[in-house]
Design goal:
This protein is an alpha+beta fold. Helix content is 16%, strand content 39%. The chain has 2 helices and 6 strands. It has a 6-stranded antiparallel beta sheet. The longest helix has 9 residues. The chain is globular and about 30 Å long.
Length: 79
């Protein structure tokens, strides 16, 4: 199931399938390691949902909600 990072719940993880956006914002995400086929684990979310703290490639990264809306991940469906 394809899901945006901003829609993840705390403790959920997935594999990045695509990173949208244009220009400097997309380049910034890619430079930080937010690239296809990277595993992501959502560690924390601020009370209003902005920012989010994720674990990716062995380090913690904080993203704004607007940045997390551009990242699509594949998750396992819970039965």
């Amino acid at each position: 199931m394809l899901k945006r990072l901003v829609d993840f719940k705390i403790g959920e993880s997935g594999l990045i399938k695509k990173v949208e956006g244009e220009g400097r914002l997309r380049r910034r995400l890619l430079d930080m390691g937010v690239t296809p086929n990277a595993n992501v684990y959502l560690r924390k979310k601020a009370p209003l949902g902005d920012p989010l703290e994720i674990t990716i490639r062995g380090y913690e990264l904080t993203l704004r909600k607007s940045e997390a809306e551009l990242v699509y991940l594949e998750t396992e469906e819970v039965k």
